[in-house]
Amino acid sequence: MTYKFSRLLSFFILTVAACCATGCVPRYTLNGSAINYDIYKTVDIGYFPIRAALVYPPLQQTFENELLNYVTKNTRLQEIDSNNADLKLEGEITGYSLSPQAVGTNAYATETRLTITVRVKYTDNKNPANNIDQSFSAYRQFDSSLMLTDVQDELCQQISEELVNLIFNATFGNW
Questions:
Q1: pTM for this structure?
Q2: Beta-sheet strand order (sheet of 87-100)
Q3: How far apart are CA 16 and CA 3, in angstroms?
């Protein structure tokens, strides 16, 4: 039994030593990014104007701030305003809608769903095969007895956080 263990331990030590000697070092990130920082140094996060039929003006700033903060906290990319950036994120908020969900005994909705849709154009100037032009949607439901104006800011913040996670995983995470 000890012979097998010592052989296994020797194999493990030799494997680790070989990896270190050749520069093969596994890297793990907890945020899901798959960015090679030897290639990618800069990112340009553009504007996301609201193009939805229903407009809530603070949403643009809320979403843009959340996206910028998430990317700068979870990557080592330098944010620049330039078309020459290695990576570029831009798009538009294309949907902001309310829809009734659960129906009560009196045939009135007891819950309302707020859905936000964002179209994202992700440009990888180093490898165009990674380019993405895709829409992402997220929603939150709230009690219909509440006024939208009372819950709108909190819902937009929560939805923006979810959208940013989806966008980050689809672009920087290269899932």
A1: 0.79
A2: 78-79, 42-45, 87-100, 111-124, 132-143
A3: 20
Tens digits of residue pLDDT in 48-98: 999 999 999 999 999 999 999 999 999 999 999 988 999 999 999 999 999
User: Is a pLDDT exceeding 90 seen at residue 122?
Assistant: yes
- Residue 113: pLDDT above 90? yes
Alpha carbon distance 95, 117 (integer Å):
5
Report the 10 Å Cβ neighbour count for 164: 23
Angle between helices 148-171 and 58-74 (to 10 degrees): 40
pLDDT 10s digits, 5-24: 555 555 555 555 555 544 44
